[in-house]
Amino acid sequence: MTSIDEFRARARAWLEQHAKPFDEAAGYDLEGSAVPLQESKRFQKALWEAGFAGITWPKEYGGQGLGAAELIAFNEEAADFDLPTGPFTIGLGMPGPTILELGTEEQRKRYLPPLLRGDEIWCQLFSEPGAGSDVASLQTTATRTETGWLINGQKVWTSGAQYSDFGTIIARTDPTVAKHRGITMFIVDMHHPGVTVRPLVVATGHAPFNEVFFDDVEVPADAVVGEVGEGWGAAVVMLRNERVTIGAGGRARSNPLGFDSLVELARARGLETDTAVRRRLAVLYARESALGAYGRVLHEETTAGVEIGARGSAAKLAGAELALWAADLAQDIIGSDIALGGADLERVVAAIVAAPGGAVAGGTNEIQRNIVGERVLGLAKDPGVDRNTPFNQLKLSR
Amino acid sequence: MSLIFTDDQKSLAETVRRFVAQRTPLPKVREVIGGDQAYDQEVWSRLAGDLGLAGLTIPEEYGGAGATQADLSAALRELGAGLVPSPLLACVLTAGALLALDDEEAKREVLPRIAEGALVGALAVSEPGNRRWIPAEPETTATGSGDAVTLSGAKVAVLNGAEAGVLLVQARGPQGVGLYLVERSAGGLTVTKDEVVDPTRSSATVTLDGAPARLVAGDAVAALDRVADLANLAIASEQCGAMLACLTMTTEYAKVRYAFGQPIGAYQGVKHKLADMYNLWALADAALREATRAADEEPAKLGTAAAAARTLSSPGYLTSAKETMLLHGGIGFTWEHDAHFFYKNAIAGNVLAGDADYQQDRLADKLGV
Questions:
Q1: Confidence class of residue A244 from pLDDT cuts 50, 70 and 90?
Q2: Given CB 3.0 to 4.6 Å as the disulfide criterion, which of A99, A358, B45, B162 pairs with A103?
Q3: Measuring CA to CA, which residue among A85, A164, A89, A23 is closest to residue A362?
Q4: Which position has the higher pLDDT, A396 or A138?
Q5: Superfamily of domain A123-230
Q6: Res A252 pLDDT > 80
Q7: Is B66 strand, coil or helix?
């Protein structure tokens, strides 16, 4: 047995003893809060104690100091289980790796071990009401004080802000230079009295995100991640990690807009022999299975050491387009009953209503097309007419 | 086996790509299809003989190389990218049908000659007035028995029918639907080359008026189902190659063509269409990889996977070829530019061996919907 096989066997044995098996039929966790926080923290701590948290992170910051092969082996085994680690996904996937890459030695020692062992939860504060696709036009400010900085402004679409201990925030520190150049990243204490978190109710009626308000929130000088004025670069590092986090996702819950579900829906409505419906179901199968195969191609290439670059954006775009297309098909299968809803249609109607969210969250389809065009195909960047204009002379959404 | 190419497949693809670039680049293809030949005989000899493509998936016992469907797919992608006219697809389908039947004598007689490139085989299934590629109840009839069988009827859209030395014809005989070998020289056989939209592919209309034929023993319905899968694999392979060629050509143009002070690829109206073309290719390509994987190691899943790949590759290629013309603007609509050859190839390829409705119905059948 190789050391990887041993590691895999050890992970499997631990998971079988400590985690619940994956339940494919379970519905989506629409609130993002099905698991009690204390249980998540306990589980993360147990994971760390068993040597399965921070697998590729250095030992001096609480990690295991192992390689990508061990991480992939663990993720493959973990895909068969429901790990209640949702609240740690953001911290471990984005702020954590960014602090590891850009943080000071003090920051790494202070923040990384408590994150890995489940003591502290993190969120990420980028988007603003006036800065969505164009995040670099953000208007939250950080002004210098004698001891550090004072943050004022509003962030939005913040997952987990309601229970986070810390967040990484990007704010404008110099409005007299071009928009990408005057931004700095900070670590902010989410328990500061100037921080207000409000749930953000979305189209589905659920509140999986928050709005976060900053009123004179002081942070010390050593809260800067990377260099002052280099926050855009730090944000790019973090977003790159976001795509890896999203791309690494395990198994899918049974999808109410997936082929199996819509075949069932068509049968229940006596449409399984309708020629047009059968043909659209066939196309749905083709698109869905191709997307799965594309994910496996990217995974195999990663394992074989081939850079997948920005192709994760192509997969994300394809997935969002497929969900919207399947939502149209589902509506046509349901017919006029869609207006009434009804108990048997609850899940599929919720998924139809939620489908546009996938085409916006994590970068809109238009932004993904820009990324595919520029970073996969190598086309010229968008003209970016405001690229060299000082921020305080730009027209902004307010 | 995985979904990424093996070193052997990469090397085969590279060899075919180099051959296409040196011996049959698009300006050369343009000359060939402007003449009266369906393909360049010397190019075909080299493809079949030196590169061994005619017998690639034919087992060694019948003179072939016994390679996998994934290997053949890698080569076909390159030929599709170059729009190389050749009777390879017709040979693959004819050999595939024979291999799926149980007539040892017919296999020993025909397959080695196809494998060495000495014989072109053509499959004749479609009939006039029937939209289905493979009719369930062919009108063409076989009468007589033993050595005295003759065929009567008409077959349309016979790929490389005019260049074939032997035809494999679907007909209804006393024992039901069968496949019959007809020599090109047979009396009562008339082959008329079609006027076609896509000049890179040759097809013919065949009439049989008491033409002598020989029944190939075996289950013809099952063999033709297998052939439909092989056709989907082969056509999807060519189309994935051609889609990538369209994407590459148009991306390069969007980098060097300037308008309003910027390369046109900087504008979202162009960039986003190219991103969508990328995804059409990437998903069809992934589906094709899954289909060739199934062909070689999980045959029970081949029918579904091959139909799924084709369901994406044909309309995807048609969209890509159309966008290639549109994004090139005026120059893309000239005879001088290659875009129209891809567009015509995509239009004809969309209905070759079964149109979109046929493929979707077939996929739904395979999925048990």
A1: low
A2: A99
A3: A89
A4: A138
A5: Butyryl-CoA Dehydrogenase, subunit A, domain 2 (2.40.110.10)
A6: no
A7: coil
- Over residues A182-209, mean pLDDT: 95
Burial label, A198 (beta-carbon count in 10 A; 0-12, 13-18, 19+): middle
Cβ distance B283 to A287 less than 8 Å, yes or no, reads yes
Considering only CB atoms, which residues of chain B are within 8 Å of chain A?
2-4, 247, 251, 254-255, 262-263, 265-268, 270-272, 274-276, 278-279, 282-284, 286-287, 289-290, 304-305, 307-309, 311-312, 357, 359-361, 363-364, 367, 369
Smallest CA–CA distance, residue A176 to chain B, in Å, is 27
What's the gap in Å between the CA of A123 and the closest CA on chain B?
31
Overall domain count for chain B: 3
Q: What is the pTM of this model?
A: 0.91
List pLDDT tens digits, range A79-130.
888 889 989 999 999 999 999 999 999 999 999 999 999 999 999 999 999 9
Task: Say how many C-beta atoms besides its own lie within 10 A of residue A73's C-beta.
Answer: 22
Domain boundary among B65, B84, B115: B115
Three-state DSSP class for residue B49 = helix
Given this model, what pLDDT does residue A248 score? Answer: 43
* In contact, A5 and A72? CB cutoff 8 Å: no
- Catalytic residue of the set A242, A307, A346, A374: A242
Last residue of a domain, one of B68, B94, B115: B115
pLDDT in tens, B4-44: 999 999 999 999 999 999 999 999 999 999 998 999 999 99
Q: Which residue has the higher pLDDT, A71 or A189?
A: A189
**pLDDT score for A249:** 43
**Is A39 annotated as catalytic?**
no
Pairing of strands A148-156, A195-200: unpaired
Burial class (CB in 10 A: 0-12, 13-18, 19+), B157: buried
Q: Nearest residue of A to residue B292 by CA position?
A: A293
Per-residue pLDDT, averaged over B140-157, amounts to 94
Fold that domain A3-120 belongs to in CATH: Butyryl-Coa Dehydrogenase, subunit A; domain 1 (1.10.540)
pLDDT for A246 beyond 50: no
Q: Are residues B87 and B172 in the same domain?
A: no
- Chain-wide mean pLDDT for chain B? 96
CATH superfamily membership of A255-376: Butyryl-CoA Dehydrogenase, subunit A, domain 3 (1.20.140.10)
Q: Report the C-alpha gap between A303 and A316 in whole angstroms.
A: 20
Residue A275 to residue B360: CA distance in whole angstroms: 10
For residue B83, give Cα distances in angstroms to A125, A339, B341: 51, 50, 8
The answer, yes or no, to whether residue A282 has pLDDT greater than 90, is yes
Is the CB of B4 less than 8 angstroms away from the CB of A301?
yes
Average pLDDT over residues A135-163: 96
Q: What is the CATH number of the domain that holds B66?
A: 1.10.540.10
| Interface residue of A277, A285, A321, A333 to substitute, partner B, most B CBs within 10 Å | A285
Which ipTM was obtained for this model?
0.95
Which residue of chain B comes nearest to A263, CA vs CA? B369
Q: Are residues B240 and B202 both part of a single domain? A: no
Structure tokens at A246: 């999203």
CA B106 from centroid of its chain's CA atoms = 23
Collect all residues of chain A within an 8 Å Cβ-Cβ radius of residue B324.
none
Structure tokens, B251:
């991306």
